[in-house]
Amino acid sequence: MPDRRPSAWRPHPWHGLSVGPEPPRRIHAYVEITPFDLVKYEIDKATGYLRVDRPQRTSSTPPMLYGFVPRTLCGARVARLGTDGGRGDDDPLDVCVLSERPIERAEVILDATVVGGIRMLDGGEADDKIIAVLAKDPAWDGCADLSELPKPLIDRLVHYFSTYKTLPGEPARARIDAVYGRDLAFRVVEAAIEDYVEAFPDAATS
Fold this sequence. Notes:
Strand content: 25-35%
Strand order of the largest sheet: 1-4-6-9-7
Oligomer: single chain
Helix content: 10-25%
Distance between the termini: 18 Å
Order of helices and strands: EEEEHEEEEEHEHH
Radius of gyration: 16 Å
Number of domains: 1
Mean pLDDT: 90
CATH class: Alpha Beta
CATH superfamily: Inorganic pyrophosphatase
Structural class: alpha+beta
Low-confidence stretches: none
C-alpha cells in the first residue's frame, strides 16, 4: 500500500521522488521540456524548481517529452557501459517519453516503460538518453523494445540530440555513439541508480 501522507514541503524532484514502481523496466520520469517548448528548461539542483537554461538555439524542438529519472546519476558506472569508458556528466539520467496524446505542460511525473536508449557524448562526457513509452498509453504501452518503435521517431531523436546545441558554422559538441535496445537500457538505468546511491547515500536511503 503506497504511503499517501502529504509531505510537509514539496519534495525535490531529483532527490525526493522515487525512481519508479519497477525499475529498471518501469520508471518515473520528471518532465522538464515538452515538444512545444522553444526554451530549454532544466531542474535547478539547489531548489528543485525549473530554471530557464537558454532559448533553444536552433529551430528544432525535442520530438518527445524530455526530462530525467529521479534518484539516478549519469556517473562512472554509466560511462563504463559506453564505448570509450570516460566519465559521466554527473546529472540525473535523461529520459525521453513517447506519448500518443500531446502532453503540453512540464513539471509533471509520468510512469514510463523503458524500451531503449541513445549513447551520447557531450563534451567528452557520457550523457545517455533513455527512451521510454508512457505507461497505459493506448498506442505505445504494448511496446517492449526499441525495435518495435517506428524508425523515423528514433531518427528524429538522434538528429535532435546531434544538432540541438550547434549553430551553422560551429563544430559539433555532441556525438551519438550508439542507439541501443531494452537490455542495455536496463543496465544503464541500474548503473545510474548505483551511481546515485554512491554520490548521495543519505538521500538514497530516505
